[in-house]
Amino acid sequence: MEKNGQLSELRNAVLRLHKTLVDSERVSYEQTMGTIRSPNHFLQLLSSDPWFAWLRPMSQLIVAMDEALESDDAASAAVNDAFTNQARSLLVASEAGEGFSKHYDEALQRDPDVILAHAEVTKLFNRKTPSVSPPRGEGQGEG
After folding, report:
1. pLDDT at 37 over 70
2. How many helices (H) and strands (E) does the chain have?
3. pTM, to two decimals
């Protein structure tokens, strides 16, 4: 798979995880605070309510990936590796942590859908970037 495809695949997996987290957090919010009145109200909450603030680093990562995919640098191994490392660093759950890591741990504990979406992203972390030259014995002249 080309590097641009790898970044796109990572971006899509992070986006699915983000949606899963938003959905899970909405359920938690409504159980605590009451029903969200409308989609517009929910959008306002997502963008300004402290309850959802912990999700913003992930939103920002997705926006940065989108911008990179639209640029000429999207296919570079360095860009792909940088975003993989950013996602890997962000998606660390910690019961004793603060901010994102603590909330992420709580979401993983309460919602199996979050676990599945997390697994989808993390399996991409260990993927090898394809080498430029063909493997030994392939693509070499007959001899």
Report:
1. yes
2. 6, 0
3. 0.84
